[in-house]
Design a protein that fits this description.
By secondary structure, the chain is mostly beta strands. 13% of the residues lie in helices and 34% in strands. The protein has helices at residues 2-19, 202-213; strands spanning 26-32, 39-44, 49-55, 61-67, 70-76, 136-147, 156-166, 172-184, 187-195, 226-227.
Amino acid sequence: MRAGLVSIASGVSAILWASGVSASPYTSTYSDLDLGKCALIEEESEIGFVQVKCDGQHGYDVYATEGDLRLYLAYRKPGESLIIEDEPAEVEEPAEPVLEELETVTEEPEAEPEEPVDVFVPVGVRPIGQTIPPFNNLGPKLEWRSPNRAGAEPFATIVRYTYQQMSEDGSYSNGQVLVVSRFRSGESCHVGYIDALANANANEMAREVADKYATGGSCPDGAVPVLGRGGDEFRY
């Protein structure tokens, strides 16, 4: 799948650069992403958790959530649920059977404990959006992709994450990755990663990925595709 994405993105880029004009039916607008100016929703300083709501575009709010030194982004309009999964239906317990006076009562086996919810789940329900695996931070701008016509609503965003990456000698340096996200009906997910330092045309690649893979369909089932060179931290 990743090879196909790379091939398609490279082919589109070659055609556009050869013609010298942009034939894209989509366009970009930009908004600031200054978390210090966003409205605080919840904070638990003891565990390093904070969630804020920022102004987006076309009626969308941007929810930024920090947890475990990682930042999640989600995009929703007022009225869209923050929790996507349905509450489990209550099961009515059966009445206890009437036992004879001398009947031996068989003890019920203990119920297995419920497994904890993993907020880093890569697919499925994403109440707070998604993040990238390494410790990270967000760039100051959001790029919104939308159809190139008046009043059209955005369908994807592109944001630059900075993150810690380990070199072969064990030292750390800052990496940069462009994250392409799509959002539908209250769910936000990543559809592509582009290493912003290893690819000279990273911004163009990110737009092509957004235009082709965020306009329809569903969220990736499994690992998010990595486009172009680099990005070894995100390849699984």
